[in-house]
């Protein structure tokens, strides 16, 4: 795959997508459109079992929206830009496979909002996070006010949103914004290790499981419990369930066919 703003490598069933607008990978409309296309392509590719999104270089995952593109937009033009970015984030969030954000540096504004769409966030010890929009007289417009409270709770989210301050990787882990912090040199190795472990899980069950969690979060509890049971029955009817239980009884490694 050849893109102007991204680099995509696929190996051993793991796709690594680099946001590639050095030095700090600002997010413009072209990057969002290319990322939307990549997310759809990877979701449809049966050879891809897990996805990692990271930033090129050492300075940033993505340091927010490209101010040079948006600073002179009219409100109507900015709304159109937001529709593009919102579509991209929804496309990433709805990938049926596990998606890992490997956060190698600054994840600010729109960059953090992209990371919030991923299932896991692993951070370099040099990473910094923030939603500084309030300091510019605006608010986040790509999911920051909605996905962040759902992840870390309303009070802690408001602290980041209302103050607009940056936090380091240690604080991000303390509040549940990231799953794990590792030394910078080990970031991609750690992300790929997790991706390979996820790729070894039965793909059909993992896809149903991801949908159960993500969609269930937006339901009333009783509806979500009913949704979970229906999804459980889908997996119970699969060939992989038969293989998994047989392998357990026979004390051997299962050979899942993802059916």
Automatic annotation (TrEMBL):
<dbReference type="Pfam" id="PF00378">
    <property type="entry name" value="ECH_1"/>
</dbReference>
<dbReference type="GO" id="GO:0006635">
    <property type="term" value="P:fatty acid beta-oxidation"/>
</dbReference>
<dbReference type="InterPro" id="IPR018376">
    <property type="entry name" value="Enoyl-CoA_hyd/isom_CS"/>
</dbReference>
<comment type="similarity">
    <text>Belongs to the enoyl-CoA hydratase/isomerase family.</text>
</comment>
<dbReference type="InterPro" id="IPR014748">
    <property type="entry name" value="Enoyl-CoA_hydra_C"/>
</dbReference>
<protein>
    <recommendedName>
        <fullName>short-chain-enoyl-CoA hydratase</fullName>
        <ecNumber>4.2.1.150</ecNumber>
    </recommendedName>
</protein>
<comment type="pathway">
    <text>Lipid metabolism; butanoate metabolism.</text>
</comment>
<comment type="subunit">
    <text>Homotetramer.</text>
</comment>
<dbReference type="GO" id="GO:0018812">
    <property type="term" value="F:3-hydroxyacyl-CoA dehydratase activity"/>
</dbReference>
<dbReference type="InterPro" id="IPR029045">
    <property type="entry name" value="ClpP/crotonase-like_dom_sf"/>
</dbReference>
<dbReference type="InterPro" id="IPR001753">
    <property type="entry name" value="Enoyl-CoA_hydra/iso"/>
</dbReference>
<keyword id="KW-0456">Lyase</keyword>
């Amino acid at each position: 795959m050849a893109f102007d703003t991204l680099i995509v490598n696929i190996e051993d069933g793991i796709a690594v997508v680099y946001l590639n607008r050095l030095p700090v990978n600002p997010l413009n409309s072209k990057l969002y459109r290319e990322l939307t296309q990549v997310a759809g392509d990877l979701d449809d590719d049966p050879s891809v079992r897990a996805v990692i999104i990271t930033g090129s270089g050492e300075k940033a995952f993505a340091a927010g929206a490209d101010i040079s593109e948006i600073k002179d937009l009219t409100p109507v033009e900015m709304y159109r830009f937001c529709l593009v970015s919102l579509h991209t984030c929804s496309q990433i969030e709805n990938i049926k496979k596990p998606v890992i954000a490997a956060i190698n540096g600054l994840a600010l504004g729109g960059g953090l909002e992209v990371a919030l769409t991923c299932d896991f966030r692993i951070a370099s010890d040099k990473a910094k996070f923030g939603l500084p929009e309030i300091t510019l007289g605006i608010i986040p417009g790509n999911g920051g006010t909605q996905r962040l409270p759902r992840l870390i709770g309303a009070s802690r989210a408001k602290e980041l949103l209302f103050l607009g301050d940056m936090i380091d990787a240690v604080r991000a882990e303390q509040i549940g914004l990231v799953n794990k912090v590792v030394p910078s040199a080990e970031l991609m190795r750690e992300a790929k290790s997790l991706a390979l472990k996820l790729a070894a899980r039965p793909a059909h069950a993992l896809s149903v499981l991801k949908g159960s969690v993500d969609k269930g979060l937006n339901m009333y509890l009783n509806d979500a419990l009913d949704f979970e049971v229906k999804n459980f029955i889908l997996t119970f009817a699969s060939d992989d369930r038969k293989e998994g239980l047989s392998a357990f009884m026979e004390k051997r490694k299962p050979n899942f066919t993802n059916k």
